[in-house]
Specification:
Elements lengths: L5 H12 L23 H15 L5 H6 L3 H16 L2
Length: 87
């Protein structure tokens, strides 16, 4: 897979950590932070691990700290996927 989209991310979030009651992952969630979406650091790390396995990419741990919203996370993941495709 060469690109992670929002629908892929929400599927993986649901598989790894479920969905917080009252949060609609199919709504406008791109700029909400993980805590607003009901995901703690453990849920986030499980999601990261699943994406690394499923997409065959290793994500930069320091960059993960900066990716505190789905939009920033998708950008980071897709940049990593693009970089790995050129190697």
């Amino acid at each position: 897979m060469d690109r992670l989209g929002l629908s892929d991310l929400t599927r993986i979030l649901r598989e790894c950590a479920g969905e917080e009651e009252g949060v609609d992952l199919d709504g406008d969630v791109l700029d909400l932070n993980w805590m607003e979406l009901g995901y703690d650091s453990l849920a986030f790390l499980q999601t990261v691990g699943q994406i690394e396995r499923e997409y065959g990419v290793l994500l930069d741990e320091e960059a993960l700290d900066e990716a505190d919203t789905p939009r920033l996370f998708l950008t980071m993941v897709n940049e990593a996927l693009a970089a790995s495709a050129t190697v």
